């Protein structure tokens, strides 16, 4: 079994299993030199940068043996601190940063200097570059303000049809996307070889669309229009020269039935050419649910993971828990008993490449308990140390090189 110590030896731009697979594919097999991650995994962006291809290839290679742990906004603030460079609640508890860092760009488009949770965009860009230089991975979601009504992402207006090609606000939509293009273009660093690199990002637009809480969600838009918006977003970004993105699809499990998983999950699916990662946002499986027993909830979580992995594998995509957790978590053994135990259930569940929990809101500023990860003194802090040490989980201190 691969351990955290020898995993680095196994990393390479191309996964051995993919080479083996392709070798068995008959007449059309590409020669090794033709095989980049973009072709081996049919990346959405066939012109993805080599570092972006390497990131996806390495995530494929790591999965099954390991899972990256992620946390939203971890460098920006924690439950009991804000604005302290180098700090993170995850690092406070375990000594390491998470392997994956979630960022949110809601506020781009309306020319705000800070995002919807008061994270300064300039700081965010600097952190994303520093994360890359340390070897960590960043993922970005976008609670886009509604370009039609000007309201926030929870606006519920039927705006999608007006934003897609042919819509009366299509030009405005392009302007919003342009703000992301500009933000993204500034994520460049010079690597050791003197080469300018745009930091690879797992981009997760239009998330939780199976729910009805965002203006792009079910009920406020026709499925075909949602798909058109997703496809336009991808095509437009590529046409603007954006080639550092891995595209993650992330419906919300709260509106997906285990009895009808594939159909519910694929509502609004934009197609295999438009998605690299099949993610699932799940607070339902990971949060507090007073209506069922813990055993029932864990069983549901296991099925969620299995179904997501099955779908991902059938499409040759990566599977991930793109977002989730328990708001204000109170279970002291949560990390090993409720998360690790389920993720390590079997060969399918172990294929989840990464799992990210949501943010630890600053208590003083937001005047409420709203957190998903432990912090020093939290009841689950000791258990989280075990989670960090477990061979299956990867934090930044245990990550192999992800961009080579
Ligand atoms: C939600 C909450 C909100 C936040 C939003 C976007 O889940 O955390 O407070 O504004 O995500 O980050």
Features:
TIM Barrel; alpha/beta; 404 residues; binds beta-D-mannopyranose; disordered N terminus; eight-stranded parallel barrel
Structure description:
33% of the residues lie in helices and 15% in strands. The strands form three sheets. Strands 1-4-6-9-10-11-12-13 form an eight-stranded parallel barrel. It has 404 residues and is an alpha/beta fold. The N terminus is likely disordered. It has a single domain, classed as TIM Barrel (Alpha-Beta Barrel), CATH 3.20.20. β11, α11 and β12 form a beta-alpha-beta unit. The structure holds beta-D-mannopyranose. Beta-D-mannopyranose binds next to loops.
List the helices and strands and how they pair.
Blueprint: H1 7-10, H2 16-23, H3 37-40, H4 50-62, E1 67-72, E2 77-78, E3 81-82, H5 89-94, E4 100-104, E5 106-109, H6 121-134, E6 137-141, H7 160-163, H8 170-185, E7 188-190, E8 196-198, E9 201-204, H9 223-239, E10 245-249, H10 261-265, E11 277-282, H11 294-314, E12 318-324, H12 334-343, E13 352-357, H13 363-366, H14 381-389, E14 393-394
Parallel strand pairs: 1-4, 1-13, 1-14, 4-6, 6-9, 9-10, 10-11, 11-12, 12-13
Antiparallel strand pairs: 2-3, 7-8
The structure holds beta-D-mannopyranose.
* H/E element order: HHHHEEEHEEHEHHEEEHEHEHEHEHHE
In CATH terms, the superfamily is Glycosidases
The overall pLDDT, averaged over residues, is: 92
The portion of residues forming beta strands comes to: 5-15%
Shape: globular
DSSP helical segment count? 14
Which class do the helix and strand fractions yield? alpha/beta
Query: How many domains comprise the coordinates?
Result: 1
Query: Runs with pLDDT <50, length 5+?
Result: 1-35
Ligands bound to this protein structure? beta-D-mannopyranose
Strand order of the largest sheet: 1-4-6-9-10-11-12-13
Question: In angstroms, what separates the terminal alpha carbons?
Answer: 22 Å
């Amino acid at each position: 079994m691969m351990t955290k110590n020898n995993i680095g030896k196994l990393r390479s731009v191309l996964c051995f299993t993919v080479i083996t697979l392709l070798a068995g594919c008959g007449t059309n097999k590409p020669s090794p030199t033709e095989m980049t991650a973009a072709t081996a995994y049919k990346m959405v962006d066939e012109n993805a940068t080599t570092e972006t291809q390497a990131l996806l290839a390495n995530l494929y290679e790591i999965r099954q043996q390991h899972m990256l742990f992620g946390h939203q906004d971890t460098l920006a603030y924690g439950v009991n601190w804000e604005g302290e460079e180098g700090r993170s609640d995850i690092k406070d508890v375990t000594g390491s940063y998470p392997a994956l860092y979630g960022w949110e760009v809601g506020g781009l488009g309306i020319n705000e200097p800070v995002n919807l949770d008061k994270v300064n965009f300039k700081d965010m860009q600097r952190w994303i570059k520093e994360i890359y230089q340390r070897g960590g991975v960043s993922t970005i979601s976008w609670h886009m303000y509604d370009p039609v009504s000007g309201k926030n992402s929870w606006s519920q207006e039927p705006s999608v049809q007006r934003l897609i090609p042919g819509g009366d606000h299509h030009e405005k939509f392009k302007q919003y996307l342009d703000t992301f293009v500009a933000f993204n273009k500034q994520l460049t660093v010079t690597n050791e070889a003197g080469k300018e690199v745009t930091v690879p990002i797992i981009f997760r637009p239009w998330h939780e669309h199976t729910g009805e809480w965002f203006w792009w969600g079910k009920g406020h838009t026709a499925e075909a229009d949602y798909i058109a918006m997703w496809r336009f977003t991808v095509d437009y970004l590529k046409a603007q020269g954006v080639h550092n993105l891995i595209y993650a699809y992330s419906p919300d499990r709260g509106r997906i039935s285990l009895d009808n998983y594939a159909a519910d999950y694929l509502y609004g699916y934009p197609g295999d050419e438009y998605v690299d990662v099949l993610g699932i946002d799940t607070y339902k499986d990971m949060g507090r649910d007073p209506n069922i027993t813990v055993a029932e909830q864990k069983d549901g979580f296991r099925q969620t993971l299995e179904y997501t992995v099955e779908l991902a594998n059938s499409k040759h995509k990566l599977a991930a828990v793109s977002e989730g957790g328990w708001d204000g978590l109170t279970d002291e053994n949560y990390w090993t008993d409720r998360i690790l135990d389920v993720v390590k259930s079997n060969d399918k569940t172990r294929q989840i490449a990464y799992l990210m929990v949501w943010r630890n809101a600053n208590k003083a500023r937001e005047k409420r308990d709203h957190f998903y990860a432990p912090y020093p003194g939290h009841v689950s802090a000791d258990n989280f140390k075990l989670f960090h040490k477990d061979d299956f989980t990867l934090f930044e201190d245990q990550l192999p090189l992800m961009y080579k």
